[in-house]
Request: fold
Amino acid sequence: MDLDELYQEVILDHYKRPRGVGLREPFEGESHQVNPTCGDEITLRVHVEGDTVADLSYENVGCSISKASASVLYELVNGANIDDALARLKEFTALMNSRGQGEADEETLEDAVAFTGVSKYPMRVKCALLGWMAFKDALVRAEAVPTPEGGAE
Amino acid sequence: MEAASKLDVESIRADFPILQRKIGDKTLAYLDSAATSQRPVQVTDAMRQFTDYSNANISRSVHTLASEATDAYEGARAKVASFIGAISPDEVVFTKNSTESINLITYAFQNAAVERGADPRFVLKPGDEVVVTEMEHHANLVPWQQLCLRTGATLRWIGITEEGRLDLDDLDEVVNERTKVVSFVHVANLLGTVNPTSQIVARAKAVGALVGLDSSQAVPHIPVDVAELGVDFMAFTGHKMLGPTGIGILWAKAELLDAMPPFLTGGSMIETVTMERTTFAKAPAKFEAGTPPVAEAVGLAAAVEYLEALGMENVRAHEKELAGYMLEKLEAVDGVTIIGPRVPIGRGATVSFELEGVHPHDVGQILDSEGVAVRVGHHCAKPTCIRFGVTATTRASGYVYTTTDEIDRMVSALDKVRKVFA
Ligand SMILES: Cc1ncc(COP(=O)(O)O)c(C=O)c1O
Reply:
């Protein structure tokens, strides 16, 4: 087991010094997500102004992977255009579901590239995606994107 | 290893091929037997022998194989019955697992609530009470909670002390004349606590309530005798006692099984059937609708034989030593807090702990990289986690094949965890 691949410096750094943490006002959409197998939780809010994610704020409990992932998410999508944010969400989700086969694009994913190794650990993919699922759901609740078929969760 | 141990752990280990397995380049140290135990070759061989030479459906045909299969299945029932001191094999019902065994009981209550002429002991109404404890596995909590929601009865529970023991101070208030049934965990799967049963059983009897045990973590690890315990029903599961998955056990007093409405209905559980109505077979058949897990029963019987040959008193003594060793070594690790009893008295070799500043998921991952398998998470005991203010714990659990060396490997791997997250 190559641990260094999983616990990259970048991940440990985001875990120890999470960016953007805390729940803030105003917000139009809030989502609460739980990983039922391990009890990790996140509450995440989005504040939308026009077509921009004007603020993304969150509180979470969880492992290093889930906490670092939420912090990286903040850096990537806070202040971003909603379409760009959704594109990153799609890209990151695909990377996580790639079972170690995915190629990450540093241009678009920045620090999230460090999570490539996580995709080799099926038990941890859910940890990495928890915050991103909350983000997707919060955008729906904020009515910033159309409701996906079959509901948000 | 331990001079005082009555188990020859080295020769036991030779019966478990999986213990030779490498995880990466490290030999497996399996410290997750509370989730599921490993199986000795005796169990796999018995199942294979049955499958290769005697496989048939039971009780349905007159050919030789059917008769051998029926004998094997009923023989397993008799073996389990004698292992737990049941007066008759007919008191042993085979299910899928503990969870189904407990649901079989709660559905007897639920079906009785809507059936005319049901035994009043099973009929719950608003104002009636059901008692569990705060340290239940979800398997012995959710079914009772749902039953109460559906019948209007009230769910009550016995709390947990700071030391991880049942808080029996207000037992007489929690178990009272409104109580219809008390169902509690015998050995707690997160805390490792071995609960004293006599006081709760006596109180339940005194108020005329039925009383049962979730012995999923007890039957594999300590001598269990249903007559001595004085309970009305008991659930346990094959895969935690060296047996296969797919088979569980409900033991209940014959008189109670007779009074209970069936849970699943269909083939094999009937006496006679017309298009309008059905009369049911006697227990245990009444509760075993459909083709049962025959090969699994054969494997379970082999597991019981294996445990009997070791001697359950010896198993208990071995695990008491393991518990003492684990507690001592873990207490010495910087930043470790044990959740559950901190002395090896009235507890098993299942120890949950927190490592300061590191989430159990990360602990488990790094331990795995050293070949050490532990369980992390809420262990299907969320209320216990809430009681101790944690979302998850790391849990190490030992069994008949566990060595102190494996515990040492876990403890040194914890140092590595601390280095990564320093
Ligand atoms: C105390 C306790 N009760 C019930 C269960 C459920 O057992 P099973 O999953 O085999 O139904 C378990 C095991 O997970 C347990 O530890």
